[in-house]
Amino acid sequence: MTSSNVRxxxxxxxxxxxxxxxxxxxxxxxxxxxxxxxxxxxLISVGFVAFFFTTIVGKGYSAFSQSYxxxxxxxxxxxxxxxxxxxxxxxxxANYGALVKDSLQSLFPDVNGRKPKRELRRLVSTGAAYxxxxxxxxxxxxxxxxxxLWVLADDxxxxxxxxxxxxxxxxxxxxxxxAQIEWVEQLRESGRIELRFNSVFFTSGxxxxxxxxxxxxxxxxxxxxxxxxxxxxxPLGVAAAIYLEEFxxxxxxxxxxxxxxxxxxxxxxxxxxxxxxxVFINFLELPRSAPLVGGLVLALMTLPTVIIAxxxxxxxxPPSIREAALGLGASRVQSVTHHVLPLALxxxxxxxxxxxxxxxxxxxxxxxxxxVAFIVEAPQTPLDPSSALPVQIYLWAxxxxxxxxxxxxxxxxxxxxFLLVMNAxxxxxxTRFERRW
Amino acid sequence: xxxxxxxxxxxAHGSQLKDKSVSTDRIGDNEQFATVGEATVGDPILxxxxxxxxxxxxHAIKDVSLDIxxxxxxxxxxxxxxxxxxFIRCLNRMNDTIDTAxxxxxxxxxxxxxxxxxxxxxxxxxxxxxxxxxxxPFPKSVYENVAYGPRIHGLARNRAELDEIVFSSLDRAGLYxxxxxxxxxxxxxLSGGQQQRLCIAxxxxxxxxxxxMDEPCSALDPIATAKIEDLIEELRENxxxxxxxxxxxxxxxxxxxxxxxxxxxxxxxxxxxxxxxxPVHRLTEDYVTGRIG
Lengths: 437, 293
Hints:
The structure holds two protein chains of two kinds.
Chain A: H1 2-7, H2 13-60, E1 65-74, H3 77-80, H4 88-93, H5 96-107, H6 114-121, H7 127-138, E2 146-152, H8 155-161, H9 178-189, E3 193-197, H10 200-203, H11 216-247, H12 252-265, H13 269-283, H14 291-315, H15 319-327, H16 332-360, H17 364-368, H18 389-397, H19 402-433
Antiparallel strand pairs in A: 1-2, 1-3
Chain B: H1 2-22, E1 36-37, E2 44-55, E3 58-69, E4 73-77, H2 84-90, E5 101-109, E6 112-113, H3 121-127, E7 128-131, H4 142-153, H5 159-172, H6 176-179, H7 192-204, E8 210-214, H8 222-235, E9 240-244, H9 248-254, E10 257-262, E11 265-271, H10 272-277, H11 282-288
Parallel strand pairs in B: 1-11, 4-9, 4-10, 7-8, 8-9
Antiparallel strand pairs in B: 2-3, 2-5, 5-6, 10-11
């Protein structure tokens, strides 16, 4: 190659220049094409993300408000406490539904007949009676008085208020009858029905009635699991990463362990669910549906990710720092704990939080350990049966009621909010604690 | 045109090499690697006998014997990859951190073998300090950089003593006046030359007997280099210094003795001016006159 080049006469300067200029056009065209395809790819992905967000937000935002109806409730002593004993058991067992029915009847005194009365009764949620019960139990002195109260409307009425009921459809084919629509319009005119912030959604657990259902029980289960998952996976993962990166000898066994850690990171999550079922529930006999077991399973699932992220954070610390410490007479453990670990910590935390974010959205392993149950009460401890946010989304997506559609999207929004906060904190941690050298 | 010029240049270089290799009054040739000169001294602080280093299959240091005298600066010179860095990294067992490295032979510090089983490398490195090629201050404050060594070895009983050690070390490294108002700034914010002097201050804060310097000026500009060289001259009063350098001028300026390494062999050791002006071995002459390296 070289010898043939040498023998050839060197090209004249003008010729070289002409050759280069001739090729310029083509080179620039290629460059433009390359850049354009990149821009195209970015546009496609941004488009999908935008589409995803507009659908979810568009469907879900309405769940953050809820229809309430204003009733004038007379706490009738004859109904609630006929003997005047104020005995809590009598009060708890009283017929509060009748109070609601009476106050509705007083709003629309013309309604007669069993069927119209039943339809009228169904303007408000069954939860209204429980709300009245709570009021009386809190303060029995309320009996005998008349109060203006805002009570939850039924979910179908709520759907009508939000414009999700097509009035053109034949009345037999829709859930809201013509009479109900008329009453709602009358209520609207008199200012007795309005959309308010939906606090129920954030404070209660699951329910068969969409207007009474909320995400708090599921969110609390998720929070318990995340705490357990982080508390286990982070220290274990960091310790494993430090040992493998700084202390382990280079031999076949360590190589085998490394390969298997990388393989574990790619194992489908449902397999971890099966593992959790057989080890934690069947063998260790931990309770089913408990966030404790869920957290353990998610910790197993997150561990390889944390190890891999921590190892790359450790390798990113320049060897000169270790040498400096060792050269001063620091032991290997001192060089790691005093210098390598503080420098690698932001990267480790970032990796762990991203792993955790993945665990937060994980559904499949939770199905295997029974966290797919219908849970009304928020768990008090990690041993109580609980649901999780993604599982709740899955359950609601399966429900036939129209009102659960918006709740599904709203729950997705809440889950996305969680993820956003976690990712933002990962970025914040990185920029806050990252050291330059 | 360009091709021709490059070609003729290479040819000239080649023929020059051939011309000079024909006649010489130096001893040795490319096959003869036995050390010439004065490798041993009376009462050495470090004494290396028959040192061999292997990196896996690679034989990096081949049967090197050398003494390092007290309060002297000895420079290690030689072409890239000749093993001079590997050699000084044996002297404080820094090669222990490389899994594949194996060091054989006897290395005695004050008459005690440093590779003996009962010797703790941590203690050894407190006695044989090291300054590295690239300034590598910890990403901590200037003060903490210097205080780190005394702290882990428990050299100071209280804050006042620690202050004393830190400030005097910085002073001896000629850095105190430049950084006295910047004690809490990160060490990495100093200039390159200041960083390297900070690393020297950090090393002398532990009060070692020997300081190893692995090309300490290769990343610095000439002014910073001059400062470090002055500093080395001053430090000689209290420490023995082994310095690896690529610059023969630097070796000539700072060291009393010079050791020339070639392909893992110690070729020649002697008084610096003798090695540079009147080398015994032909390879040494080729190197110091700029014909190889």
